[in-house]
Amino acid sequence: MVCLPWEREGRPLSDENLLEAGKNILRSEASEILRAADRAGAEFVRAARIIHGLRGRLVVSGMGKSGIIARKIAATLASLGTPSFFLHAAEGVHGDLGMVCRDDAALILSNSGNTAEVLSIL
């Protein structure tokens, strides 16, 4: 059973509370998308051009929650026609880097930028 924040506060699990929570989550996510759009600049364009001009595949990698997001990005891109696959960063050093070819490019996700497994495959 899921314990929602307002239940911990002793508030009832009413339709109104569920709707309020859902709307707050959607507003928060929309706000973060707008912040990301505002931060997009030359590096975004550079990354988009690399992906658009790929002769190989896009290797998407990460660890932990970043790895879960990376797996979803790789699957979505593949569904949309961009050849891509997910490479688990921890498995990369144990032989899976052999799947990466000369014309491939990498999109590596990391919250901190200091994850040992991610750094070891760079």
Task: Put the structure in a nutshell.
This protein is mostly helical and 122 residues long. The chain folds into 2 domains: 12-53; 54-121, 3-Layer(aba) Sandwich (Rossmann fold), CATH 3.40.50. It contains 6 helices and 3 strands.
Could you characterize the architecture of this molecule?
The chain is mostly helical and 122 residues long. The chain has 2 domains: 12-53; 54-121, 3-Layer(aba) Sandwich (Rossmann fold), CATH 3.40.50.12570. Helix content is 54%, strand content 11%. The chain has helices spanning 5-8, 15-39, 42-52, 64-79, 89-92, 116-121; strands spanning 58-62, 84-88, 105-108. A 3-stranded parallel beta sheet has the order 2-1-3. Strand 1 (58-62), helix 4 (64-79) and strand 2 form a beta-alpha-beta unit. The longest helix is centred in the first third of the chain and has 25 residues, at 15-39. The radius of gyration is 19 Å and the shape is elongated. The model has no long low-confidence stretch (mean pLDDT 90).
